[in-house]
Amino acid sequence: MEKVLLRNVDAPESHTLEVYRARGGYRAWEKALREMAPERVTDEVKASNLRGRGGAGFPTGMKWGFVPKDNPKPKYVVCNADESEPGTFKDRLLIEKDPHAVIEGTMIAAYAIQSHTAFIYIRGELSFGATVLQNALDEAERAGYLGKNILGTGYDLDVILHRGAGAYICGEETGLLASLEGGKGWPKVKPPFPATHGLFGCPTVVNNVETLAAVPWIIDRGAAQYTALGTEKSKGTKLFSVSGHIQRPGVYEVEMGYSFKRFLEEDCGGVRNGKKLKGVIPGGASMPVLRAEEIDGVTMDYESFQAAGTLLGSGGVIVMDDSTCMVRAAWNIARFFAHESCGQCSPCREGCHWMEKIFRRIEHGEGRAGDLDLIQSISGNIAGNTICPFGDAASWPAAAFIKKYREEFEEHITKKKCVRME
Ligand SMILES: Cc1cc2nc3c(=O)[nH]c(=O)nc-3n(C[C@H](O)[C@H](O)[C@H](O)COP(=O)(O)O)c2cc1C
Ligand code: SF4
Questions:
Q1: Which structural domain range is residue 386 located in?
Q2: Domain count of the fold of the chain
Q3: Closest residue (by CA) to atom 8 of ligand 2?
Q4: pLDDT of the residue at 420
Q5: What is the number of the ligand 1 atom nearest to the C-alpha of 53?
Q6: Is pLDDT at 422 greater than 70 in this prediction?
Q7: 341: domain CATH number?
Q8: Scanning 86, 125, 340, 416, which has the fewest C-beta atoms within 10 Å of its C-beta?
């Protein structure tokens, strides 16, 4: 398979402008600026059927098309580089190894919606990535790709790198924008959506790093070449970051529609130490877990994961072998969400802590009859009843772990201990 997203990462000094340009970098930017009207750029991205890689899979070109052209306010593009979903580390690879592709994609998005200021909001902990990106931005500006009157076309654009402070909720787009404005990273109710009421109340496009990194390739090669890859509904390629009990963890680029079983067994070398697969979370910690037998016939695309009862999410594949205690795994994830809830809505603020406490007591042999139904009920009361989708993200994994491994949870309660951690 020809690589779209990881096309440059293995080249020595891939983060430099010199190497990026030698490999065709900024060709798409020049093409967009010199040969394409802004609407044509959006149309090309629409035609590629590129969908957002930040988790929700929203069509990218359609999102750009929602930005009102007649609105006199400034328009903004924000590249979401907050990447905080447990099990997800694919944006980080692009940022560190191919920063110019991320920047070029951000610039093309800005041109498409006629924005003159774009931001890259990077997770606070990614300090090396922030240095790499800032150096790349400086190089791009010195080369005349950014700034005033770019390449003599009269178009002006600044791209500003902003470092977050390490809060998961600042990856949610409205929380991110609140943080970028200088306030607390508190999400807002949607609608209105950022496309019309975003940063400082102005039209704003928020896109994930991986989404934007695919854009230069699409503009350079044309949408038809992109749609030739993937399945009927899920086009192109997708990055998956694989971690846990697997022989070869890492970031993989996969053509949409590839067999999930073959991917785990052949590409990633299978479960490590000769153990058996017990379960796998395919899309980051907020997505429902699949039992080993449920991956048969599943392909790596939006539709197939959904049909299997989970979601592609961020592509963070977390592999668990048969020595894993699923109660401890569920507790670990619940603890993360309890810690990261921003606290604005009571179902999420209270419910996440309740679930964490109940998982903890079950794991420590203090579970009570009725605890499993209690967690299911709390989870059901959070999902769909909160300001932002964090509530769903916290409740789905809790409910799925109990549904899929109920006998193990019951064993903890009846035996009053965890047999795996003895
Ligand atoms: C709790 C939560 C955390 C999120 N974290 C991220 C993140 O770290 N990176 C990201 O790109 N999108 C994240 N998102 C999704 C963003 O809200 C938004 O949908 C995305 O950045 C849009 O980009 P895309 O259309 O290119 O996917 C998160 C969403 C939620 C609900
Ligand atoms: S769902 Fe949770 S994280 Fe989202 S706004 Fe409400 S309290 Fe905050």
A1: 326-415
A2: 3
A3: 342
A4: 79
A5: 27
A6: no
A7: 1.20.1440.230
A8: 416
Average pLDDT over residues 236-253: 98
Residue 244 in contact with ligand 2 by CB distance below 6 A: no
Task: Let me know whether 384 and 289 are in one domain.
Answer: no
Query: Which ligand sits nearest to residue 314's alpha carbon?
Result: 1
Nearest-atom number in ligand 2 for the CA of 342 is 8
SS3 117: strand
Nearest CA to ligand 1 atom 7: 171
| Residue 334 near residue 359, CB atoms below 8 Å | yes
pLDDT tens by residue, 349-396: 999 999 999 999 999 999 999 999 999 999 999 999 999 999 999 999
Q: What is the DSSP string of 199-228?
A: GGGS-EEEEEHHHHHHHHHHHHH-HHHHHT
The CA distances from residue 128 to 16, 123, 125, 193, 291, in Å, are: 15, 11, 9, 32, 36
Could you tell me if 107 and 241 lie in one domain? Answer: no
Span 127-134, mean pLDDT? 98
148 in the same domain as 41: yes
Cis peptide before 12 (omega within 30 of 0): no
Task: Say if residue 166's pLDDT is above 90.
Answer: no
Residue 235 has a CB neighbour count (10 Å cut-off) of 23
pLDDT, tens digit (0-9, with 9 covering 90-100), for 26-85: 999 999 999 999 999 999 999 999 999 999 999 999 999 999 998 899 999 999 999 999
Q: How many angstroms does the Cα of residue 169 sit away from the middle of ligand 2?
A: 8
Together in a domain, 309 and 342:
no
For residues 133 and 29, membership in a common domain is answered with: yes
Q: pLDDT tens digits, residue range 110-123?
A: 999 999 999 999 99
Q: Same domain, yes or no, for 216 and 122?
A: yes
pTM: 0.97
395 lines ligand 2 (CB under 6 A): no
Q: Do residue 31 and residue 176 come from a single domain?
A: yes
- Among 302, 321, 340, where does a domain finish? 321
348 Cα: distance to centroid of ligand 2 (angstroms): 6
Q: For a substitution probing ligand 1, which of 123, 208, 382 has the most ligand atoms within 8 Å of its CB?
A: 208
pLDDT at 16: 98
Same domain, 344 and 316: no
CB-count burial class (<10 Å; 0-12, 13-18, 19+) for 128? exposed
Verify whether ligand 1 is closer than 6 Å to residue 389 (CB atom): yes
Predicted pLDDT at 1? 83
CA atoms lying within 13 Å on the CB side of residue 62: 7
Of 227, 261, 287, the residue at which a domain comes to its end is: 227
